[in-house]
Amino acid sequence: MRVKDLKNLIVKIFLNFKLSKEHSIVCADALINAELVGAPSHGLARLFSYCNRIKKKVINPKPKIKIKKISQSITSIDADNAVGFIGADLGIKHAIKNAKKTGIGFVAVKNSGHYGLSGYYGERAAQQGFVALCFTNAPPAIAPHGAKKTLFGTNPICFAAPSGNKAPFVLDTSISVINRGKIRRAAKLGEKIPQGVALDKNGNPTTNPRKALDGLQLPIAGFRGSGLAWMVDILSGVITGANHGGKVKDPFDDFTGPQNIGHLFIVFKPNLFVNNYIKRIQENIKRIKKLPKIKGVKEILYPGENKALRFKINSKKKIFIPKNILAEINELNKG
Amino acid sequence: MRVKDLKNLIVKIFLNFKLSKEHSIVCADALINAELVGAPSHGLARLFSYCNRIKKKVINPKPKIKIKKISQSITSIDADNAVGFIGADLGIKHAIKNAKKTGIGFVAVKNSGHYGLSGYYGERAAQQGFVALCFTNAPPAIAPHGAKKTLFGTNPICFAAPSGNKAPFVLDTSISVINRGKIRRAAKLGEKIPQGVALDKNGNPTTNPRKALDGLQLPIAGFRGSGLAWMVDILSGVITGANHGGKVKDPFDDFTGPQNIGHLFIVFKPNLFVNNYIKRIQENIKRIKKLPKIKGVKEILYPGENKALRFKINSKKKIFIPKNILAEINELNKG
Predict the structure, then answer these.
(1) Which of B239, B274, B293 sits opposite A270 (nearest CB)?
(2) Which chain A positions have a beta carbon within 8 Å of B146's beta carbon?
(3) Residue A42 in contact with residue A181, Cβ under 8 Å?
């Protein structure tokens, strides 16, 4: 489907589900961006789930969002259980606005939901010339080090910075070996997942995505990854006022209440301490790109470079929609 | 040796090497803390290197440190090639001071050196009731993803937060599978290193610490760890005005100039967005501690808990000093 047509269709669906025009566009843009950067696990594959949660009254289509200015740098947002994209969109916007004024913007969002790709928000700050750190928590998927039950989400860490090139530096790394969306999508499409990324509920390695979803995902690097996931849970859950400590509800099969996910954004100007940031980052990237490469590697890419390339290519093409997801979209379009 | 006697001895050594009394105490405290928390790789094993760099005129014993207030929240520090502990000590102090005033403190330090354990600085913020993120870069030890030459340091990520208990939550994780100090200490003591943490210069796995130091350390989680190391290099090097992109000199064998390491500290009040932070973090920790444990695990510990316990135990005992390190200390004490 052409990007424009797909956007119109998704906006129409969200309007059917009682979102405002403005919010529908925010949601459509975020979902389509995920498709365009080559992360379909965070794109159309999730549309049904967002709509389903609205239908089950655990996402609020008409949120009364409260924005509280704590200082010129610090803002607190209560997203009133809006679709996650909406609270996150406001969060990064206010963080950028505050950073423009004071050099640093610090924004917490609570009562939000799954906000898609962290990199989407970091990238927007970087494209406007700012450095960003974004944190968000997620439903249980990873067992804390020493435990045999999941509690942490895949809790991504996102860091974005202007690169001096069109494609900003955007690191968006989950704390699991692979992201949960990829496992969900594999389950949806009947595909296998790689070995070594998950255990079934009995603690045995599995390549079956459904068994993995019922079991545990493995954190990167044992206690280090577990510690980083815990850090993200504190930053985005404990500190923001959102759910934390395993209380974030699964968006796909827990309709007992809103997710109440939290997001935390730290945004600042890159030229606070140096007057030649762009020259410095370009020198940094150049040095790394010039290193001798391991066999088979043509070019060393910085985080975000590949995604930007995919975005450019995919924006000119039609978006491929798998059959079963197209069926969901058509169903949703009927209202 | 008793802690008090050891401190007096180290202070005397730094005084011999022309540091001020105040700076000598800052350095002695940092080194002894590393011993007490059970991280001797960052303790006395490094004393000789600091003094040697002063002797070779690549550490400045009489720095004229410049502290520039950019706003009530933001401070820039030029450490004038002081021992790393001194710039970092000022950095975290100013970040805490700024956070006290405005809610958030943001401090960059440049022209600094190896500052020991990141957790030491994070912990101090947390003990005073603040949340802290600390970043610092380091000499080349890890190859960027796709490269076959080292460039990134082991670039630790540190996150600290009050826990409501005596021991704060302090995550201090390097991006390498094990920290470089442990490899150096093994080399010094003639011990082996574990398998799977390093390659020799020909790219073959090795358990020989000297071969590992000449070769590559492996990052955690492949491109994820490589991306996190790159993030830390940008945050603490590119943004602060310090060396970056592989230009940080090795403290042990490169005397062609100062290291010019950078540090970045983000410190904030935990109660900005909630009015019951301590209750929330205690609930968070409680939920995780109550999870069913894997076989052999008695208790799930949060990051920093074990270190605090070791600190408590070790503070009551004499500090054990390996023979060859004691010989170095005695040599340094002669002046």
Answers:
(1) B239
(2) 293-294, 297, 299-301
(3) yes
Residues in a beta bridge with B32: none
Concatenated DSSP letters of B214-276: HSEEPBTTTHHHHHHHHHHHIIIIITTTS--TT-SPPTTT--SS---EEEEEEEE-TTSS-S-
Helix or strand holding residue B68 (H, E): strand B66-69
Neighboring chain A residues of B291 at a CB cutoff of 8 Å: 143-144, 147-149, 151
In words, the CATH class of domain B62-268 is: alpha beta
- B128 pLDDT higher than 90: yes
> Cβ contact (<8 Å) for A146 and B297?
yes
The pLDDT, as a whole number, for residue B177 is: 81
Q: Who's near B103: CB < 8 A, 6+ residues apart?
A: A70, A71, A73, A74, A106, B73, B268, B269, B272
Give per-residue pLDDT as tens, A75-101.
Answer: 999 999 999 999 999 999 999 999 999
Burial class (CB in 10 A: 0-12, 13-18, 19+), B245: buried
Is residue B325 a contact partner of residue B5, using CB atoms and an 8 Å limit? no
Gap from A3 CA to chain B (nearest CA, Å): 30
Q: Does A265 contact B at CB distance below 8 Å? A: no
End-to-end CA, chain A: 20
Res B246 pLDDT > 90: yes
CB B112 within 8 A of CB B23: no
- CB environment B57-87: b (16+ within 10 A), e (fewer): ebbbbebebeeeebebbbbbbbbbbbbbbbb
CA distance B309 to B291: 22
Give B108 to chain A, closest Cα distance, Å: 7
Q: Is the pLDDT of residue B276 over 90?
A: yes
Query: How far apart (Å, rounded) are the C-alpha atoms in residues A64 and A241?
Result: 17
- Exposure of A24 in the CB half-sphere (CA atoms within 13 A): 16
Measured CA to CA in angstroms, residue B88 lies from A94, A198, B77, B204 at distances of 31, 40, 9, 37
In chain B, where the domains are located: 62-268
CA atoms within 13 A on the CB side of A111: 17
The model's pLDDT over A311-331, given as tens digits with 9 standing for 90+, comes to: 999 999 999 999 999 999 999
**B265 has which bridge partners?**
B107, B134
Question: For residues B261 and B155, is the Cβ–Cβ distance under 8 A?
Answer: no
Kind and range of the H or E run holding A169: strand A169-173
Classify the C-alpha dihedral A81-A171-A36-A328 as positive or negative. negative
The closest CB to that of A293, out of B148, B221, B240, belongs to B148
The amino acid sitting at B190 is: G
Q: What is the pLDDT of residue B8?
A: 97
Please give the Cα distance from A220 to A142 (Å, whole number): 10
Question: Residue A126 belongs to what H/E stretch?
Answer: helix A118-127
What ipTM did this prediction achieve? Answer: 0.95
The rounded distance, in Å, linking the Cα atoms of A109 and A261 is 8
CA distance A131 to B321: 44
Give yes or no for a contact between B41 and B27, defined as CB atoms under 8 angstroms apart.
no
B48-85 confidence digits (pLDDT tens): 999 999 999 999 999 999 999 999 999 999 999 999 99
What's this model's pTM, rounded to 2 decimal places? 0.95
